[in-house]
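Example record

One chain of 727 residues, shown exactly as stored in the release files.
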Amino acid sequence: MNAPHPWSRRLFLQSSAVAGGLMVGFHVPGFAAETAAPGTPPEINAWVVIQPDETVIIRIARSEMGQGTLTGLAQLVAEELDCDWARVKTEYPTPGQNLARNRIWGSFSTGGSRGVRESHDYMRKGGASARLMLIQAAADEWQLPVSELSTAPGQVRHAASGRSATYGQLAAKAATQTPPADITLKDPKDWKIAGRPFKRLDTRGKLDGSQVYGIDLKMPGLLNAAIKDCPVFGGKLKSFDAAAIANKPGVRKVVPVGDSAVAVVADTWWHAKTALDALPIVWDEGPNAKLDSEQIAAMLKAGLDAPEAVVGQRQGDLTAGLAGAARRIEAVYSYPHQNHATMETMNATARWTPERCEVWTPTQNGEAALAATAEAAGLPPAQCDVYKLHLGGGFGRRGAVHDWVRQTVAIARALPGTPVKLIWSREEDMQHGRYHPITQCKFTAGLDTKGQLQALHMRISGQSIVADIFPQNIKNGLDPVVFQGLNQGGAEGAFGYAVPNLLIDHAMRNPPVPPGFWRGVNLNQNAIYVESFIDEIAHATRKDPLALRRELLAQSPKHLAVLNAVADKAGWGKPAPKGRYRGLAQIMGFGSYVAACAEVSVAKDGTLKIHKIIAATDPGHAVNPQQIQAQVEGSFVYGLSAALFGEITLKDGRVQQDNFHTYPVVKMEHMPQVESIVMPSGGFWGGVGEPTIAVAAPAVLNAIFAATGQRIRDLPLSRHQLKPKAA
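Predicted structure tokens for this chain:
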């Protein structure tokens, strides 16, 4: 068996016991002995292993899917450890090891831009603790007081005598030290490794092909599987004729999976896929066989004026505010279902025996993958494990729901002891996803005689992810994710705008299309709705869009700071290049404050060109500014793909899109120049992978209005024929 990561269970069996919140002390190979096997690198604590050749291995539970989490968290640990960055490597612990060690690594969940912001504290303490233990080891060996010793990258030094020892020389003794009770972390102003634009640790493997993704994994005796699920949501598998493909090349077995799918196992994936395509299958399409997008839209529209709704935010007296308004403005917006469309389709490899089940898969949450594995395997979690691989895209699809893992284990159970790799086809991936929730939104604004905004009602009608995936978390009908960016405060999003009489509520309407967390989640459409409507108010009252936002954000300085930064950089208030027009947007979400200014032109034939987007991000602390800039650029690729093209539609209960020719993404010709302003103000830890997605679309939409006078209230833009303003 080939382990897919640099260290495997073998190193885990050299691990140590829980003490003082960190893993140190006696080594227990197989949980039986107190001494480490000869030649094995000592574990200083759960996060730090130092090898004799001075290699520093930093263990990270969060997943790497291109966002740079491994590098960023490694920088934080290395900063407090004071090690040589050139010698740093990373590795994943497994969720099974985490379970066996009383969850010493904490949460494995990587989503909601939480990779750094939720684990920075204990990981920094892990690095700082290891450094102090190395110093104590040197102090004991040299019979010197700890107060006389210091560290330089990878060394402990005694300045008075000139003595020094490398971390590799001290590691074995340091591993026996009791972890310190009191740990003082560095002030970010003193950072030398963290806060710097260091190169990513995972780049080389991606360039030279040595990085193994789940879809690449090979092992002795491996078989391959392809799968088809019922094309209608809620439908079931009725029957299939396995004999019809028994003589197809390489076919080993046909396996029903759950009550709605069937898989073919063969020697190669292509043999499995071609045999599956030839397999006669009869489906019971169930109650949703006639469902289409128009029916879903009508369901949501009815919620816009429904008397029952759950309040997300309320201030003042909306009824009185609207009743006393001199003028009202109304608008209705909508946002479609969208697929994650990860470059690497869903896949996993499983090997099942009656005693143990192991899974190798790209996952955003190793613990959730372990739970899915154990349930599908019919075994206790302690008899299972998941070996996490880098993800060829996650975007939320590989987080909360692990349907592909359950399927793989179910197939492997039909071939005990044989490793089986399941790969979803692109068509399966496109038509059986967990889609961005569909919503509509109705605004009613009340203005006084001076055109000042006095009352605002924002009614959201639509789907709840939490109600479907985590129904136990719905309290009094409230799904907090629906209100991302619309709250009075908190890390997940503060509204920012001061409105005397405000009501934001949600009429839950859940069509039978499975929803999921999608990069940026509800912040995406909420930013489009709010920032487009703020522009509508500005136009209706003949105010400059920037001036109106400054007026409404006067009591929200962090919102205002990022907005002003992009406006200043873009030269707002000065003429744009001939034929170009600008639009603004700002939002707070996932712990960070973000804003964007887009510059677009619309040709006579209606062709849209997005020339430039300037983005500002205040994440509180910036662990790696270069990675933040890359994240902003990548988020605009994703956000603009959604705005320009992203739409999943249904007809006769089936998803109509099946590949990238029917679900396109942006190409180089569509991509604007991106200028990123990273402006950490300190004092908090925000995310960077998702917030800026939310401002890409509304900034472009507002610029399109400036260019054409057309207010686009439903996406994608590919639905609309743009017309430039008359000369």
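Notes: The chain is about 25% helix and 25% strand.
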